[in-house]
Specification:
The chain has 309 residues and is α/β, with parallel strands linked by helices. The chain is 43% helix and 14% strand. The structure holds guanosine-5'-diphosphate.
Length: 309
């Protein structure tokens, strides 16, 4: 990518897309474009084609998706599969038809089988059954990464994919019904502190293990891949480190300075027991994360407090 290349970040207002825009700008890229949901409905094929025809972006980061935590994913599977397939089909096909030089498709670590060996290597994809609580989303994302591979194979399009682990950071969704665990717990601990409540409810048993990557690291890794990776296989992006949900809750509790108790509600689902990515491929390409979990949580908490002021 040249510093003045036209770069379209699909989903530039979201957690992931906004971090990619910040990273590109910090690296001196001057021609970064985005469209809000209102301006361009990515599930509408005609609108997407018109946009590509008029704007002719040279590079595309496909960070637009219908996303949500364990509750949203399992409650609205029809929307999760339909909207994600529509968005990615429209953008990938338009990128092909209007001769985009390179496209990076973003997925998620939930694409891997529920019971696959850990840490998860890229090659474990499609080696077993998916975790039911996010099957719809995972199926869409698997189709997207395969679509990039097939367009590369058949037409030689430089379409690559990366699969980030659980992400968190500024512009996250802090809605308790639809969010992921990190923003949910940051908000719950903060509100419990402010309201002097005796405990915070944590869903599930606290035993599942999760890996967390700050979005600023993820964005840096995505831009690095755009600049340095042309392989057919997708690439995992993560830290290679994991914590239990209980440990995560303890760290958030300390950062927020809440003095009450944790109460686990095992009527809520645990989801997959563990999903730790093997990041050796990414490290082999030359990139490694920088932001440690506690520092990232402090940053995210600060952002949350400012956003509600
Ligand atoms: P997942 O990684 O796809 O399972 O999605 P989540 O980030 O939503 O959930 C991760 C884990 O955190 C699951 O075991 C949840 O049950 C647990 N968890 C604990 N408290 C919460 C909460 O308040 N909200 C959410 N979304 N998950 C929670």
């Amino acid at each position: 990518m040249k510093k003045d290349s036209k770069i379209y970040v699909a989903g530039h207002r979201g957690l992931v897309g906004s971090a990619i825009v910040r990273n590109l700008k910090s690296k001196g890229y001057t021609n970064v474009i985005g469209k809000t949901h209102k301006e361009l409905d990515l599930t509408n094929q005609l609108e997407v084609r018109k946009f590509f025809e008029e704007e002719k972006p040279e590079y595309v980061f496909l960070a637009a998706a219908h996303v949500g935590g364990i509750n949203a994913n399992s409650t609205y599977p029809a929307e999760f599969i339909y909207e994600n397939l529509e968005i990615q089909n429209n953008v990938i096909k338009a990128a092909h038809d209007f001769k985009v030089k390179k496209l990076l498709f973003l997925g998620s670590s939930c694409i891997y089988p529920k019971m696959c060996p850990q840490p998860i290597k890229e090659e474990y994809l499609l080696s077993g059954y998916l975790e039911p609580t996010n099957e719809a989303y995972a199926l869409a994302k698997i189709s997207g990464l395969k679509m990039c591979q097939f367009f590369k194979k058949q037409y030689g399009d430089n379409f690559i994919s990366c699969m980030p682990t659980n992400l968190y950071g500024p512009n996250d969704n802090f809605d308790l019904e639809t969010s992921h665990v990190m923003p949910a717990l940051i908000r719950k601990f903060h509100e419990a502190k402010v309201n002097n409540e005796p405990f915070v409810e944590v869903w599930g048993t606290g035993k599942p293990l999760r890996e967390f990557l700050h979005v600023d690291d993820m964005a840096d890794g995505c831009v690095y891949l755009m600049e340095n990776y042309d392989g057919e296989e997708h690439v995992n992006i993560g830290t290679g480190k994991e914590v239990t949900i209980r440990e995560l809750a303890e760290i958030i509790k300390e950062v927020v300075e809440f003095n009450g108790e944790l109460r686990f509600n095992s009527d809520k689902p645990d989801g997959t027991p563990r999903k730790l990515l093997d990041v050796s491929k990414l490290e082999g390409v030359g990139w490694k994360y920088k932001i440690e979990l506690r520092d990232g949580i402090k940053d995210s908490y600060e952002w949350f407090v400012n956003s509600i002021k």
